[in-house]
Amino acid sequence: MSGYRGLRVLVVEDEPVVAMFLEDILQGLGCETVGPAGRLTEGLALAEHEILGAAILDINLAGERSTPIAAALLRRGIPVAFASGYGAAPEGFERLPLIEKPYREADIDAVLMLLTAT
């Protein structure tokens, strides 16, 4: 277990198997997961109302972009990383970290270190 004990991480991912895999990784790192949210509206509600320490967002949620969720989180000062197989963060969010799928625990750990260092 790492030093993320109790860090509440919002998981937004529309593929249930990938979401469960990410939850397992986060819990193994000592994080508390919030979600997962598989749709834009669900993710927005969690982003606007939950107490969070960080968020990992799939870019494409069943054809909708997760960028409104990222914008809501950033307005609240919550650090965000995107996870995607597309190879690039969405336009307007290029400065945010990107975890390329398929990812491993080391990738999630590295991005959490980056997100929590700010």
From TrEMBL:
Gene3D superfamilies: 3.40.50.2300
PROSITE patterns with a match to the protein in the record: RESPONSE_REGULATORY
Residues annotated with 4-aspartylphosphate modification: 58
All residue ranges annotated as the Response regulatory domain in the record: 8-116
Biological process terms in GO annotation: phosphorelay signal transduction system
Keyword annotations: Phosphoprotein
InterPro entries documented for this protein: CheY-like_superfamily, Sig_transdc_resp-reg_receiver
Protein name in the entry: Response regulator
Source organism of this protein record: Sphingomonas psychrotolerans
Taxonomic lineage: Bacteria, Pseudomonadati, Pseudomonadota, Alphaproteobacteria, Sphingomonadales
